[in-house]
Amino acid sequence: MKDLYYIESVRQFKESTMALLQYIPKNIKKWELANRDFKWYVRKLVDPRWKEVIREGTYVYALGNEEYQIANEDLRVSQIRMRYGGLVDSLVQTQRELPQDIFDNISILYTYHINVGHGNHSLIVFKVNNRVHIWMVDCSDYDFVSHRYYRANIDNCLKYIKQKFQLVDPIHIDVVMLTHPHYDHYSGINYYIYNKLIDKHTVAYVNLKYHIASHNYNNLLSNLNKLGLQIVEPFSCNSNKNIRILYPDIKTFNIRLSPNNISSVYNIWFDNQSYFVFPGDLEQDGWKLMDVTKCYPYMTHTHYYAISHHGSINGHLRPSVCPYKKRNNIKDCLCQHTVPVLMGRDKAFSGIYSSQVLADFNGRILYSEKDASNTPCSFLEIDLIANKWKWY
To answer: Do 380 and 304 belong together in one domain?
Structure first.
């Protein structure tokens, strides 16, 4: 039986292609029954002649001599894709038009950006009417490049939140917002489910229109399906007063774009103020499609901005098509007082962090992996109302 790989992500360079491949074992049924993820990721420098074969979200055979072959007919691929289709069909049935709470007059508002290596994980904590609420934007717990777990940092942050806000009851995640189905953005959601911090009362923003049939993503969808929680598809038409979805628009949604370029862009909004924009891994093609009547006012006036794509130049550039004025990169979209937050691990991939991104923001960046003195940290805490931050 040929060696089968799932292509998690691809980075194109001028003279080469870097691909992150996930090894698919020969017998996947036992892994499905145990709902266990595949952790065997390898980075491969791929000859440019294979660029039409090595595409994100597809399966290939590695034939030796650095040659690859499309593996669409493999029974393991069919099994994974059939499972994905069944899970999506089931989750579509859980979408319900339920009234969502709208929060005003909040008394405290913090965000926590946890060091999970190469990945994104943010928590939003706010208090209204003497009750503390906790939301989540993306959640990785495993750096698939270094093959290392970061659950200790997550546990440290959760313990700190529980003590700081004097929570008597166990921590509960009220809302989960997933930007896109890449493993470095969702691997840790299962960890929260297993520890009962996410349950049937959680609202999950998950785009069910992706065609990303991977074993690990199937496991996430399976766990969400078992919980029976409410699913909201993160399109701009499903925005509310506190969670504004700037992109994508369901009417112009293009499934043929890469997962990065159909990342959902979340704008967190309280008391008529734009506090945070989370764009996932949105790249230039995605920025180009964003409705500027949505992105311009909210990007320009936001207090904080999570830098796209872990500080890669791919997530920083903008096409010069903005009708407001020529904008070459995201720095031009933000006001000079916006504070950028960079999540991820420096040099995890070539071009992360980008020297241009660092130069354009000129020392304004807050990092999730290290403090202002370059000392490694467990998490970054930001008091959004007081505009103060601290590393732990």
So the answer is: yes
